[in-house]
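Title: Prediction job returns without error message
Component: structure pipeline
Severity: low
Priority: P3
Assignee: unassigned

Description:
Job completed but the reporter wants confirmation the result is attached to the right record. Sequence as submitted:
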Amino acid sequence: MPRAPGKDKPFRLEILTIFPEIFDSYFKESLFRLARQSGLVQVAVHDLRAFTSDRHHKVDDRPFGGGPGMVLKVEPIFKAMQSLRKKANGRQKTRTILFSTRGGKLDAKMAKRLAGYDRLIMICGRYEGVDERVAEHIADEEVSIGDYVLSGGEIPALALSEAVCRFRPGFLGKYESLEEVKGSYPVYTRPEAFSPGRGKKPWRIPSILISGDHAKIDAWRRRK
């Protein structure tokens, strides 16, 4: 079972994909950049082609039984997982996730649960899917990020990474920044009145927000 996340060790994200460069920019910006610099989060993206045994680095093949498209092979994923397990700290609580349209729906409850692990390994499918033996024998669970289909698991891996890391202490800076804590309500900033053009009525902020009455402001936010 996962435990409550703490600050005593970095939270590690491991991603298996055939398109590793997709992740370069995202993890180098904003909150992830700061979290990685501070040692709060570690990210490692692994190219599945590096775990193939043929000279063409083949990661997919035709589906048994016929049908369109290609299927990611179990062999490179198995070899990648073997490599990761050899390098793992035995005391790390690890969860291996396969992204799938048949998986459990990602929500705040799932993200908070996964934040209780020390390391997440995310397997990104492509093409017509992943050999089902990966779900049966390698992954701990399958995850979907919504009722729609994407071309691969890379965007789901980014979505899950951020959703989970938000629950790690220090990632957002302040615990109160979590919408699960403060709630979700309309926010405004300066100027108080914005002019969309000559002769048009200014767009003004709700007057309650500049009233100075914090009790009324809190009540307004709760209503919203």
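Comment from assignee: result matches the submitted record. The mean pLDDT is 91.
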